[in-house]
Amino acid sequence: MPKIKFTPQNKEIDVEAGANLLKAADQAGLYIEGDCGGRGTCGKCRVKITDGGKIEPTTAEKKHISSNDLESGWVLACQRSVDQDIVIEVPIQKDAHLRKTTLAGGVEDLTAEPMVEKAAVKLSRPSVKDQTADLERLLDHLEKPELTIELRELSHLPALLRNNSFAVTAAMAGSRIISIEPGDTSDQIYGVAFDIGTTTIMGSLLDLKTASVQAVAATTNPQNAYGADVISRITHASESKENLKQLQDKVIEAANNIIKDLLKQTRVARDRVYEVTAVGNTTMSHLFMGVDPTYLAPAPFVPAYSRVLEVEASELGLKVNPAAMITFLPNIAGYVGSDTVGVILAADMDQRKDNCAAIDIGTNGELVLAANGRLMACSTAAGPAFEGAQIKHGMRAAAGAIESVDYTDGEIKLSTIDDVPACGICGSGLIDAAAALLDAGLVEPSGRFINPVENPEKVPNHFKDRLRSGIGGYEFVLVAAKDSDTGDDIVLSQGDLRELQLAKGAIYAGLMILLKEAGLNEEDLDQILLAGAFGNYVRKESALTIGLLPQLPAEKIIAIGNAAGDGSRMALASKTIRERARALPHRVEHLELSTRTDFQDIFIDAMAFKDSRG
Amino acid sequence: MPKIKFTPQNKEIDVEAGANLLKAADQAGLYIEGDCGGRGTCGKCRVKITDGGKIEPTTAEKKHISSNDLESGWVLACQRSVDQDIVIEVPIQKDAHLRKTTLAGGVEDLTAEPMVEKAAVKLSRPSVKDQTADLERLLDHLEKPELTIELRELSHLPALLRNNSFAVTAAMAGSRIISIEPGDTSDQIYGVAFDIGTTTIMGSLLDLKTASVQAVAATTNPQNAYGADVISRITHASESKENLKQLQDKVIEAANNIIKDLLKQTRVARDRVYEVTAVGNTTMSHLFMGVDPTYLAPAPFVPAYSRVLEVEASELGLKVNPAAMITFLPNIAGYVGSDTVGVILAADMDQRKDNCAAIDIGTNGELVLAANGRLMACSTAAGPAFEGAQIKHGMRAAAGAIESVDYTDGEIKLSTIDDVPACGICGSGLIDAAAALLDAGLVEPSGRFINPVENPEKVPNHFKDRLRSGIGGYEFVLVAAKDSDTGDDIVLSQGDLRELQLAKGAIYAGLMILLKEAGLNEEDLDQILLAGAFGNYVRKESALTIGLLPQLPAEKIIAIGNAAGDGSRMALASKTIRERARALPHRVEHLELSTRTDFQDIFIDAMAFKDSRG
Fold first, then answer.
1. Which of A602, B126, B426, B512 might form a disulfide with B397, Cβ 3.0–4.6 angstroms?
2. Which pLDDT band holds residue A96 (cuts at 50, 70, 90)?
3. Is the ipTM of this complex over 0.85?
């Protein structure tokens, strides 16, 4: 069996002859970036063969790797099968950068209403005159004879009582005793709230006695190895039960890593975490629960379930108290998941009286409109452009990503996350860049670069070298090779602009359809809420410049941060809020846009870069 | 590592040097009889070393094995550690013989009231106009939106619906959907009722649509390898969590073998078994559930729980439908278990109006009295004498056991189970033999053999050779070596009579205490019910002769068969009866005899063989 050595991580594995290198890396526990699920189209899974036979580059490699780099041994991992011992250099990944993850958010003003209650008791000792069984003795003392108990806890109850002078604490969730602990632990009630994103998984540890966040942690969703988008993952999962299990195992493992991190930060014991909530899009929910997501992909996009799922931690293998209830908030529809439910909770949309729209742009774009007591939602195939996928030099919001671009005084100015040399462009940078190039007159409202040959007068001298002919049209050099981190020019291509147009057109059109169904016009909106990390960083002016948002005063557009995750925290902190979540699948009207011709009409019209600034 | 070969079973295993031979046999899957849990006191784990070094006999071996047999290589497996390769001959065990296990019993007149209900449905197909999720589509159709579903079933629901044209059957237990099956399976609802005896485990498969028994099966309780009595097993379990797990694994494995047998007999699919009930003494209940039984052994004999335990099959590893609910009927006290609850149900003791006592003699003796609307119960340390343990040539009721002994026309006549040459004596034979020897004047009411030297005139000539001096007193030869299956004389010893006196005295005294508490005399009893296999085979006349039972007309003494098992079947067949069982721990008054001086007084008095015949 061929051996693969990965450097600088210094991991070795043996693989079957013919094994795929990308999968082998995954097997070795190495995460190699990639967006296309191994199809060879994104060109991001670059690794370097430093020892082992040379082989002819594939078409995909020729497309994505310069001939110099090919000569040096760079390949696309997804394109390579391994037939002999090789040594591979894997570039160190820049982890998804959590630009502003704080302890705050979502739970500041909440009254703590944990589902779990604790009672510390001191029981009388049994005697020949009082032979009451241990469990009944405990329940009598709690004055709750109707409670049931986990067999796991009952099994060691006799010794626990006698080793602790019959002084113990019972943790109760609803009608169940989920834990019996030595002594008085009644001040220790913890929970973890997850936001299971397609790209990033975040977790918060809450003290449920005070509804306060004690620690946060995040990690890349390791399902990325099976494709950056949900469709790739649904496809993979639909191929076999083993594949579905594999994807579930990946996300559970990541969640466990986050839990471990949270427990380490706070020195809370694993068994003291009694409740877990999670939000995520409908596909993430299915994969987390190990439920077949196959029929989410083709029309009519039907989920296996909408309701809240409640499952014991032990059934999922989550490493908290084994009897902890894992509550995944409900889905609204195949492409409107519990992440949107989280946004609705965080923004109080099920309770507020004004007309308010929320836009959550993640790998997909979900929109919610609260108007006249109604709640409506839809999803748009915005594509992952705002997360850097499908964009030539696109990347997630990590160190070195161009995050803002400004056209001022005839000059284009950029800044990167962490102020380090640029290695790509993230979503907010993309919108800024398009807006800046529109302002500079280099891009037409139709989305085409102006033709510098036909219109040389429109291109200022200092831009002449930067607006150049590229593959599939013109491209603009944002950062020259000499100044970049990658040693290559970083450009915005005509293709990139087209991706942006598709994405922003879909979101705009989705919002228009919601307003139409509610009988409203855009000026009737009291607020537009921008949810998600993206919402925090996009500049409203740029969003208005490119027509991503309707024409509204900038003060009515409000970034509300990671509202999905905040909703998860709120549902964890308060059972009242959890009940609000439970009711939402019945309450939210879902609009399916894919078959509506009125949506198509607005969408096509909305792709143009029309300036919405007042 | 030394190798052990077991013949004629032809099994080989490697063991650590110094491994105990009895444990090694258990590990190899061979059941070697034994009552003392490997302490060397019962002398029953005889095996023959046919190849491998000779070694000095231990004290225990010298006590239990003749010098001829020691010479031939016979040893006690529990006394031997294995340090070199050896070949062992293991005598073929005669399995506990189920003398009269029939399909009848306990459920003939019941109305079927299964907990599980089924509904066959045909759902409308989803469309873009109706994107309702699969689960909600099913629940809407069932008109039961409040039901929860097992994740196991939800996970494959999408494919199940689409592969079966949306025609499926839902199996529901209370508020849970436990199974979703292709097509219409609504006529298939099965359950298994267990009787977990210390010695024998029995199971019955019921068709729950008709409350009819379809098949029965039984096996020896493999926990026997850790001692015949509950105290040995409690001791073993209390030593470590691993030991407890080991005992649980043994009984679950045996239960699974029974289930396999039942399914094979009836060709019912495993997944169509949705409910399981079980009864057993309190220790068996704890060990089945894997709950620490340590504090059952010492006073005040406190169980971990009394109530009904309900656990999913998957949690216990029982191989029926994984979501099937396993219901272990409740315990009354540490030594009055759900087997007694089964007796109460089977004999309708919680509902009848007359004064009625039930005696269940198994490894222990439990007694119940229903009188004036009260229900009282106690247990007596009758010891396992009636099951053949502690009796010199005692054995369980299997082929070759002397089961009846008669003194007629000055002669003692015997019969054995299956009419084969005798190899020992079982409980009913023991009582008969004592009664016959009392009738023959060879045993005094005090329980002593008459002294044939002092009273030669009392010994008829044809008995002179048979009443002879043995270890610890006289003994009577029931079967001479030339007629026995073992090639040895089969005798009833003075020690055997003493064991019988202790056992019968305890039971009689227990019954008297119950009557005293109820303010009744023995003549107030309308019926005495004899439960258990023992009750079926003991001859009332003999029981009255030796004073096991109080002086009542024989027609008031009624054998009711395996009432504990019948109670398990009844609780399985009818949820109403299960609710009756649930109420019993609160209703039955338990009397603890061990500390009562009035019990001791009656007990000592009751040990004499006073004739109760009218």
1. B426
2. very low
3. no
B380 lies in the same domain as B396? no
CB–CB of A304/A255 below 8 Å? Answer: no
DSSP letter at B394 equals: B
Q: How many CA atoms lie within 13 A of A372 on its CB side?
A: 7
Amino acid at B171: A
Amino acid found at A602: I
Q: What is the mean pLDDT of residues A534-542?
A: 84
CB contact under 8 A, B155 and A301: no
Cis peptide before B303 (omega within 30 of 0): no
* Residue B592 lies inside a defined structural domain of this protein: yes
Residues of B in contact with A330 (CB under 8 A): none
* Residues of chain A positioned with their CB less than 8 A from the CB of B162: 295
Please check whether residue B290 touches A, CB under 8 A.
yes
Find out whether B193 and B204 touch, Cβ atoms under 8 Å. yes
- Report, as an integer, the average pLDDT of B295-322: 96
Helix, strand, coil in percent for chain B, rounding step 5:
35, 25, 40
Q: Tens digits of per-residue pLDDT, B465-488?
A: 999 998 889 999 999 999 999 889
Give tens-digit pLDDT for A364-409.
Answer: 789 999 998 899 999 998 767 787 778 899 987 888 999 999 999 9
Tokens found for residue A306: 């909408």
Residue B107: predicted pLDDT: 58
Please give the Cα distance from A33 to A95 (Å, whole number).
10
Sequence-ordered strand ranges (E) for B77-142: 81-82, 86-89, 116-122
Domain count, chain A: 4
| The dihedral sign for the CA sequence A394, A397, A398, A401 | positive
**A377 inside 8 A of chain B by CB:** no
> Would you say residue A104 has pLDDT above 60?
no
Handedness of CA A275, A276, A282, A284 (dihedral sign): negative
Instruction: Put residue B65 in one of left, alpha, beta given phi > 0 → left and psi -120 to 50 → alpha.
Output: beta
Which residue from A337, A352, A257 is spatially nearest to A289, judged by alpha carbons?
A337
Range of the domain at A135: 116-182
Kindly report the CATH number assigned to the domain that includes residue A33.
Answer: 3.10.20.30
C-alpha–C-alpha distance, residues B125 and A50, integer Å = 55
Interface of B with A in 583-602 (CB under 8 A): 585, 590, 592, 594-595
Range B7-21 average pLDDT: 82
Residue A240 clears pLDDT 60, i.e. is over it = yes
At B164, which CATH number?
Answer: 3.10.20.880
Residue A12 contacts residue A6 (beta carbons within 8 Å): yes
Spell out where B395-487 has E strands.
401-408, 411-416, 424-425, 467-470, 473-479
Q: Does residue B340 belong to any structural domain of this protein?
A: no
| CA–CA dist B560, A135 (Å, integer) | 33
Q: Does B162 touch chain A (CB under 8 A)?
A: yes
Same domain, B392 and B493: yes
pLDDT 10s digits, B17-74: 888 888 888 777 666 766 677 778 777 788 888 888 677 888 888 888 878 788 888 8
Test the B interface: residue of A128, A252, A283 with most B CBs within 10 Å: A128
Residue B594 and residue B494 share a domain: no
C-alpha distance from residue B10 to each of B29, B30, B87, B184, B402 (Å)? 12, 11, 10, 48, 31
Which residue in B132, B151, B306 is closest to A133 by CB distance?
A: B306
Q: Are residues A495 and A394 in the same domain?
A: yes
DSSP calls for B183-216: S--TT--EEEEEEE-SSEEEEEEEETTTTEEEEE
Helix intervals (H) in A483-612: 494-518, 532-537, 540-545, 563-573, 575-587, 597-606
Residue B273, phi then psi, degrees to nearest 5: -100, 110
